[in-house]
Amino acid sequence: MPGRGGRGGGRGGPLPRLVQVSKKISWLLRHGAEEEGLKLDSGGYLNVENVLGNRKIRSLKVSFDELRQIVEDNDKQRFTMVPAVSAPPPPAAAIDAEADEQANAQPVQPSNNPSDWLIRANQGHSIKVEDEGLLKPIIADNMPEAAVHGTTHAAWPLIVASGGLKRMTRNHVHFAAGLPAGFTSIVGEDGGGGEGAATDAAPVISGMRKSSTVLMFLDLPKAIEAGLKFWLSDNGVILSEGNAEGVVPLEVFKRVEDRTGEGVLVEGGKVVKEAPASWAKKGGKGKG
């Protein structure tokens, strides 16, 4: 079976089938719905029948079973698919308790009709979606222990020049709730028990690219105290629209460190080490 919704195909080679379909679905749900004449509901959902009937998805001859497999197997859990609510429940007084109990004892078989299902992307939208419908607000009771953004050497000088992370063309800046498998922080390696120290927890699967070379550790309580809003997606990604300028400023990061040996770049919201000049020459606009 092709890869679990990740990258593939090698240099210049064709992408695996499931990756091609996953990318098309991601584009439609995150960016292209309005362009295709589709409107996301308040929770960011589209009816699956409309998704499969879209001309760009239809050109790939995507079946409902294939779409369901992509949702279930996607390595970063980018999508959520739920049954559509076709009618409100009957009044409680009209329900026979005994019959209801018997009905509940029988397993409910999921429908295979695409019109009975809704699908959404869990995060990454450039289409305007109401945060309250799509995401869970982060407050003291559900605050993640860590919030980390991964970026590249090429992007880091641009981040410093702009004063922080910009949401760019998306609605939010993305953070992972920890480090992916195989990543460690300087603090963790020193045995300080910080982000990246060895734990028995499941590895972070979404919110950070594996190619990240610069790790930005957010001081989440400080950022919230500064007035920034943060949200949690269904697949555990931490999101923020930033300040009025769409920026999560460097002042609310407790530490930024380089994975390739340059050490700590930012400590307590202040730049403590300039990046090598070669980083600025690596080209590209560099996404934060």
Explain this structure.
The two termini are 33 Å apart. The chain is elongated and about 55 Å long. The chain has helices spanning 17-32, 48-53, 55-58, 64-73, 97-105, 131-134, 156-162, 186-189, 220-225, 277-280; strands at residues 46-47, 79-83, 117-121, 136-137, 148-151, 164-166, 173-175, 214-218, 231-232, 238-240, 247-249, 253-258, 263-267, 270-271. The chain is built from 10 helices and 14 strands. Strands 5-8-12-13-14 form a 5-stranded antiparallel beta sheet, with no helix packed on it. The chain has 288 residues and is α+β, with helices and mostly antiparallel strands. A hairpin with a 5-residue loop joins strand 9 and strand 10 (238-240).
The top level CATH class name of the largest domain: Alpha Beta
Percent strand equals 15-25%
Following the backbone from N to C, one meets helices and strands in this order, namely HEHHHEHEHEEHEEHEHEEEEEEH
Structural class: alpha+beta
Count the helices. How many?
Answer: 10
Main beta-sheet strand count, sense and barrel state: 5 strands, antiparallel
Question: How many strands?
Answer: 14
Radius of gyration equals: 22 Å
Q: Give the mean pLDDT.
A: 79
Tell me the span between the first and last alpha carbons.
Answer: 33 Å
The CATH architecture term of the largest domain is Alpha-Beta Barrel
What form results from the Cα inertia axes? elongated
